[in-house]
Amino acid sequence: MKDRQRTETSAVPMLEVRELQSRYGRIRALKKVSVTVHGGELVALVGANGAGKTTLMRAISGVQPITGGRILFEGKDISRMNAAARVRLGIVQVPEGRRVFGAMTVEDNLRLGAISRSKNEEEEGLERAYDLFPRLKDRRRQLAGTLSGGEQQMLAIGRALMAKPRLLLMDEPSMGLSPLLVDQTFEIIQKLAAEGMTIFLVEQNAYVALSIATRGYVLEGGVTTLDGSGEALLHDPRVKEAYLGV
Amino acid sequence: MLAEFLQFLFSGLTVGAIYGLIGLGFAVIYNASHVINFAQGEFVMIGGMATVFLMKAGVPMPLAILIAIAGAAAVGWVLARFGIETARGSTVVGLIIITIGASILLRGLAQVIWDRNFHALPAFAGDTPIQILGAALLPQSLIIGTALVLTMLGLRLFFEHTRIGKAMQATAIDPLAAQLVGIDTRRIVRLSFVLSAALGAMAGVLVAPITMTYANVGVMLGLKGFAATIVGGLGNPLGAIAGGLIVGIAEAMTAGYLTSAYKDAVAFIIILFVLLFMPNGLFGRAEVTKV
Predict the structure, then answer these.
(1) What is the ipTM of this complex?
(2) Partner A, chain B 152-171, Cβ-Cβ below 8 Å
(3) Could you count the other beta carbons within 10 Å of the beta carbon of residue A31?
(4) Where are the beta strands (DSSP E) in A48-194?
(5) Contact A47, A218 (CB under 8 A)
(6) Which residues contact B267 (CB under 8 A, 6 or more apart)?
(7) How far is C-alpha A96 from the geometric centre of its chain's CA atoms?
(8) What distance in Å separates residue B190's CA from the closest CA in chain A?
(9) pLDDT over threshold 80, residue A30
(10) Is B291 part of a structural domain of the chain?
(11) What does the pLDDT average to over A156-173?
């Protein structure tokens, strides 16, 4: 993991969120959110329930309208781009609660993940996904809704990888999973990061997220209030008090 | 006795198949957008009327039918693009009202562009009935039945074996997740209108030799198709077909054994009962639980 720090911190970050604002009707969900993710980094944003984490993820993916600020991908303003075009660019999200297509088979779920890619890439991706998650191969003809929570998590990650992400967004990967499955999920995330995947994840479970992250942010009431290395945030007294219950 | 019953059954299955095809259109659009498209009956009307007037202009029947269906599909695209998409952000009820407006507009346009008269299409395979156990079966009924079966097979292939068909399914299951995997859901909604319009127009062409067609023919046919969808469970394509057949048979039996005056009421009585006692329809889709 140490050589993740080799991040080719080129001048242009992969993702730059600048003073982003978003609202649901009158409720201001995001007031001022600024986040930078460089290529090859694993960045974690932690915050309590209702801090605006999911709203931020949705705004980056283009499924939640923004009312102010900008989102740049490799220096290019993508604030007005539609969701499908962002996936084609390589911004792919594993949504909160996994949201697999329950009434469709495991294999169809995976194949749909590659809908923005060519048929060839779809076949290659399928092979890779089955290598990474052999369990999914055993269950490929099963309906996704009949999988266990842990298997659905693998499927959701596998489906996102099918789109050949350049930036993988993960919304609350630990949600609803047993501690054992949380560990497994974060092992997969670390493995992907070690292979060079750029990952931005948001988590309520601050401890697990910050312990594997290169850098981290704290989101409070729609505002990014703290940032630093994962290690530093873990030991920051304010974070400790608010999120780690120490 | 038997001959009489068979006669009613044939006529019920024939109109029922038509209701089913129209109901299928409702289901496809509902699945993609949760909109109930009350202009569905007008697609049926366009199919029949356009075929009639193209044939009057000298176009041979098969070509006229194809052009009429393609024309209706184009109208469906326009409705999705300029009616539904322009109003993005409004509620589903708002969108449904837009489709009601579109239906009134299309009826008016049909009266202006074509006329207000009744027209018949020639039956595709002649008018000589086939005798079965004393009942007469029109060749057109066989054609309608065949068309229904082929349509179902075609749709099945489309939904389960093509990328875009699967994308439509995914959008129906979870539109947000569909967007996140990169499905352009606006395109899916457009496609659903095009497909539904084509299905409706096909139904309109098939039924025109039996019931005649006119500018307002879509009002009642659209409502019957809607009844079919409700009976079968909103958004369930196979349910819509079954619902159509049930409504059609119930209608024919009422008209035959009771009085034809109540024929049109039957569909609505069935809707009331289904909504009261089985709000998800007779074949309401079992939700697959998400963990």
Answers:
(1) 0.91
(2) 163, 166-167, 169-170
(3) 18
(4) 68-73, 76-77, 91-94, 167-171
(5) yes
(6) B223, B224, B227, B247, B250, B251
(7) 9
(8) 15
(9) yes
(10) no
(11) 97
